[in-house]
Every structure is written in C-alpha cells, then in structure tokens.
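Reviewer 2 asked us to include a model.

Predict the structure of this chain.
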Amino acid sequence: MREPAVMFRLPAHVLSNVEALAQRLGVSVNIIAKLIVTREIMHIPAMLEEHDRQLANMHQFLRELAFRNEEFLVEQGRRGAAAEAITEKLNEVMTALDAIRDAAFIRPSTTIADLIRSHDERPVQKSLRI
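Predicted model (structure tokens):
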C-alpha cells in the first residue's frame, strides 16, 4: 500500500488550492508543500533578528528605568530595603532578557538544506517523515 503523499494535514480548501497549483505547474503536491515549508523556514532568521531587536529595546528601557530609580532615590535621600528590592528585581528581569536573547541567537545551520538535498538525490523518492 502506498504511503500518504503529504505528511501533515491541510484544510480541504487549502489542499484543493495546492493540488490545483501542482497540476498547473506540472509537479507533485509534495514538491509544492516542500517549497512552501522551505520558504516559510527561510523567514525565521528575519523574525529572530526582529525579536532580538525588540528584546534589546526592552533591556535598554529597563536599564534606563533602573538608573532613573536610583537617581530619584539618591535625590530624595532614601535608600532603603524597598529601593534595593526594586533594583534587584530589575536586575533579575534584565538577566532573564539577556538569557532569552542568547537562547534565540541565530546560529547558522545547514540541517534543512542537507535533508532536502539528500532526499532529492535519492533514486526513488519517498515522503519525508516528520
């Protein structure tokens, strides 16, 4: 028995559009699905870059807030436990933001391209398993 051509579910109206496009171009639905998935994956670095920029803006805002908080407390002559707690919490949040930015850092990888290339070079092609 033949294995399913597409390994993920598509709504009926989307699948019919993909099938129509595949017929019009004279290629298989698998090729169209693979190209769409590959195209979407290529947008990930740009999204991560924007994500990193926004996190950097948040970090800068929190740094400025911490400096303003400290200036205010020094001017008022108050430097108590509450002020220390606020400063400590701001430092925790900034450390967490730095950890998120580090975890989301874009590291070059050819895994997807290698997977597609090895699939395309086979003499008999089967649908990729997820």
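The chain has a mean pLDDT of 77. Helices lie at 12-25, 29-42, 44-76, 81-103, 111-120. We have added this to the supplementary material.
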